[in-house]
């Protein structure tokens, strides 16, 4: 795969980003290291101090009670509850279909040599549920529902103490076993190491801000993590059939997530590029979230013109964006040529917003070009595929001689003895 530097000269940028999302996160490392260390050492006391300092919330009891969960659900607007349950049903349906493709395996590789794998749910999952800037009602659905479908025994959720009460309802409806009012890096540290109140988990999933992301990086190894998810991203690849107003609308829809959202258009048509540039500025004029979306567009937005579809595909594979929309004359054909992305939206009717909210695919996706080597969160993220083997005398006769010889070659006498132990004297003498 070509790097963007190698592609230089094959494209023209109508608008370049003025900042880099990766380097912009560097200053948080030291702060997060202190938070993680303090929470690990002092537990709930440190969590409470950081909640007061960062969230301006002195929470008496971190865990949400059953009565509070029921009230949060009861207080939901009926249409909001119906829409949330619609999203839950769609995500569950797709996760169940995905789980059905992860099958146990048992084969007899050689006579008497039996190999296989089992699919085992991870026991305890910690879901980080962001919700500081907006009441992101879809967030708990995406992390909690697949965990329950996978069969995880305990699923806990942590969300900022100032999150909208509807977020608690969303966590409860999605199936969280326990919910805690703890946000930020301190929540990640608490789930990784455990406190008197918050249990340690086996794996942490869910997106968050730069501090949450850095905390996940620092605790990885103590616990599993889904991925290191940076600021949200959307790119659109389009030819001359693209609709400038629609493309601008979709770019700004994602840009309003955060001032560090990365948004862009890659097109074969210079006229469309100029049209989108004008349309973005026009739409920012009456967009209520323009303060956020406009900042993201100014700092991280880009529009690139390439010579042909092959160059457009190469550029898309190079950036490996989180969300990739395809607006071309034959979007299905174009989509088949692209291999690096978090989730693909084929045709102009497939908006990222549908997946963000309720259509059924997961919106927790790889960013910062991680789409080159991984996909997003899915039901398979909550299970372990672990191997096993068993042998009868025929299997031992088939594999032990090679294991004995290889161990001797490697000068590993303990290995040689263990391999030879199961052979008969006659078999050993024949080596």
TrEMBL record:
Similarity-based family: Belongs to the histidinol dehydrogenase family.
Cofactor: Zn(2+)
Name of the protein in question: Histidinol dehydrogenase
Ligand binding (substrate): 232, 254, 257, 323, 356, 410, 415
Keyword Heme: no
Residues bound to NAD(+): 128, 186, 209
GO cellular component: cytosol
Taxonomic source organism: Rhizobium leguminosarum bv. trifolii WSM597
Pfam families reported in the protein's UniProt record: Histidinol_dh
Binding-site positions, Zn(2+): 254, 257, 356, 415
Cofactor details (free text): Binds 1 zinc ion per subunit.
Keywords: Metal-binding, NAD, Oxidoreductase, Zinc
Active site location: 322 (proton acceptor), 323 (proton acceptor)
GO MF: histidinol dehydrogenase activity; metal ion binding; NAD binding
GO-annotated biological processes: L-histidine biosynthetic process
